[in-house]
Specification:
The protein is mainly alpha-helical and 95 residues long. The protein is 42% helix and 8% strand. The protein is built from three helices and two strands. The protein has a two-stranded parallel ribbon with strand order 1-2. The mean pLDDT is 89.
Length: 95
């Protein structure tokens, strides 16, 4: 949608924001706007999800209503921290 000129707001938890940026860059969109929310979200109740959405709404609206050229400059230069926990694969048949 972004490539077609439709404003979007990608939402990632803080643990996945860097990955989201790397994926967007790999797809040719290093400027993709990413709204970061606290991690984790999997165990939140419905009420907690609504509260989190409310806390993030102003940033989502800003991303959807700011001129694209401004967002491109801002998000292309943005650096997200490395995840606190890094996945380390283990060999299934290691001895």
């Amino acid at each position: 949608l972004e490539e077609r000129g439709v404003a979007t707001a990608t939402i990632c938890t803080e643990e996945f924001a860097r990955l989201g940026q790397l994926e967007a860059t790999a797809l040719g969109m290093p400027w993709l706007p990413i709204v970061v929310v606290p991690h984790p979200v999997a165990d939140l109740t419905q009420e907690q999800v609504w509260a989190l959405a409310g806390q993030s709404l102003a940033e989502v609206i800003r991303v959807l209503t700011t001129p694209a050229d401004e967002l491109m400059r801002e998000f292309k230069a943005k650096e997200y921290p490395e995840p606190k926990r890094v996945f380390k694969p283990r060999a299934v048949f290691a001895r």
